[in-house]
Amino acid sequence: MRKNLRDYFQERSRWFYPLILVLFLPSTVSASGGNAAIPNAFLWIAVLLLLAKIGSLVEKWKQPAVLGELIMGVVLGNLALVGLGVFDPVKHDQIILFLAELGVVILLFQIGLESYIDEMRKVGFRAFLVAIVGVVVPFGLGYVAGIWLMPGLDTNAYLFLGATLTATSVGITGRVFRDLGKLQTREAQIVLGAAVIDDVMGLIILAVVSAIVVTGVVSTGEITWITTKAILFLVGALFLGQLLAPRIGQFFSLIHTGIGMKFTIAISFCLIFAYLAHLAGLAPIVGAFAAGLMLEPVHFQRFATPAINTSIEKAVEGADEKTKQEVKKVLNVHDKHHLDRLVEPLGHFLVPLFFVVTGMQVDLKTLSDPKVLGIALVITLVAFIGKLAAGMVAGPVNKYIVGWGMAPRGEVGLIFAMIGKQLGVISEELFSVVIIMVILTTLLTPPILNHLLRKEANG
Fold first, then answer.
1. Would you say 115 and 183 are in contact if contact means Cβ atoms under 8 Å apart?
2. Among candidates 405, 376, 375, which has minimal Cα distance to 134?
3. What CA–CA distance (Å, rounded) separates 232 from 195?
4. Helix %, strand %, coil % of the chain (to 5)
5. Considering just the CA atoms, what is the radius of gyration of the chain in Å?
6. What SS3 class is residue 84?
7. Is residue 186 very low, low, confident or very high in pLDDT (cuts 50, 70, 90)?
8. 402, 130 in Cβ contact below 8 A?
């Protein structure tokens, strides 16, 4: 018995001591003082990445890594509740916040690269229906639930609550589908297409509600202009991208055909379209997703073949014809996804930062008020029902996967809530309700979606 206990603790100590080291390393940042913002950020980044990887222990219980990263962020962001405020500076560190924002842009670019316009076109009508229902129903339910649960507030507060419930965090859902290799399923394509449309519609609603708060009224012309601008950007981005991408690839291949040039062109497309989306009044992630959709392997045919492909082809020169054909088939798949593989290391660096930092924005103190918690649980139920209703119009696919795929509010919900608070529309109580709803939809969705996807795969 004593030997078994010793073996047990020895086994656990393999990761326990590194965890203690990582947790207490940041205390050196506080002690360093002075003008050391950038060197301090180096240490913060290293610590957050290591802790994000420790959070991926949830994969041992068949949960997606994103859930572990979010939970790790929630824990780090609330250590101050037990007297350990060492991670509090990270919440306001501009370098870390920028890298986190860049992380979600890269994630949506990766998702775009692994999606195909032809496949999304096939589910376009269904995605549009899901998006419409996924905005209208949560907005209406949120407005009515707000009046019922919190009577006496300004009408604009209920409008903002409804607007917040329309949000969908495509980053969280997309990451779950990607982690499980399910991005090519019809359900994933419907969710991704609907989430982009949903994002555009949600931002239009947010812009309209904000205008009502600021000016008291909003004209039909202004609503039309906001909507037109969003549609023009998406259609124009995809059309121009398909037109320009092959020509840009051809031009730069004359300068150099190496992997570095290919990577630079891809990332530049991502960042330029993220910026253009911002100019159009949309979230940068919409532009990044569009950039990923428009870049196809055919645009890089003039670039050098990866060195490993050439080495493998030489290695099988003396093999039989069947082996050669099998190897060629595998290499063609890798060629098709070579751009995805090039961007992947950047995603490994930046994407976990985004989810950890998102989790750190969650304040668990909001759970301490029973009244607020009770209202928040009802609003969370309403939030889930609104998106599950959207899944019901998804057609001949697993409607629950689509509905739950639309459910997480994540960073988008937080952004909506913050804007409402800045405009003075959302009270502290209502803000806490929204934050709890965002926490629950963000943390509960990945394991539920993971369970549904695995159940679907196992028949």
1. yes
2. 405
3. 18
4. 80, 0, 20
5. 24
6. coil
7. confident
8. yes
Cβ count within 10 A of residue 33? 8
Q: Give the angle subtended at the CA of 450 by the CAs of 444 and 451, to the nearest 5°.
A: 95
46 CB contacts (<8 Å, ≥6 apart)? none
Split at pLDDT 50, 70, 90, the class of 9 is: very low
The pair of structure tokens assigned to 34 is: 């002075």
Residues whose CB is less than 8 angstroms from the CB of residue 197 and which lie 6 or more positions away in sequence, other chains included: 127, 128, 131
Highest mean pLDDT among 184-188, 297-301, 388-392: 388-392
DSSP H/E element including 319: none
Vertex 176: Cα angle to 175 and 181 (nearest 5):
95
Q: Of 212-226, 339-353, 370-384, give the lowest mean pLDDT range.
A: 212-226
In sequence order, what DSSP letters do the residues of 222-268 get, joined into one string? Answer: HHHHHHHHHHHHHHHHHHHHHHHHHHHHHHHHHH--SHHHHHHHHHH
Tokens 């030489």 found at: 314
Instruction: Specify the DSSP element, H or E, that contains 1.
Output: none
Contacts of 343 (CB under 8 A, 6+ apart): 106, 109, 110, 113, 263, 266, 267
* 174 vs 2: CA distance, rounded Å: 47
Among 371, 368, 362, 365, which Cα is nearest to 440's?
Answer: 362
Instruction: Name the one residue in this structure whose structure tokens are 């003075």.
Output: 424
- What is the reported pTM? 0.72
Buried b (16+ CB within 10 A) or exposed e, 305-339: ebeebeeeeeeeeeeeeeeeeebeeebeeeeeebb
Q: Is 395 left (phi over 0), alpha (psi -120 to 50) or beta?
A: left
Domains and CATH numbers, the chain: 102-457 (1.20.1530.20)
Ramachandran sector of residue 62 (left: φ over 0; alpha: ψ -120 to 50; beta: rest) = left
Structure tokens at 176: 């779950």
Given the structure tokens 């989810």, which residue do they identify?
355
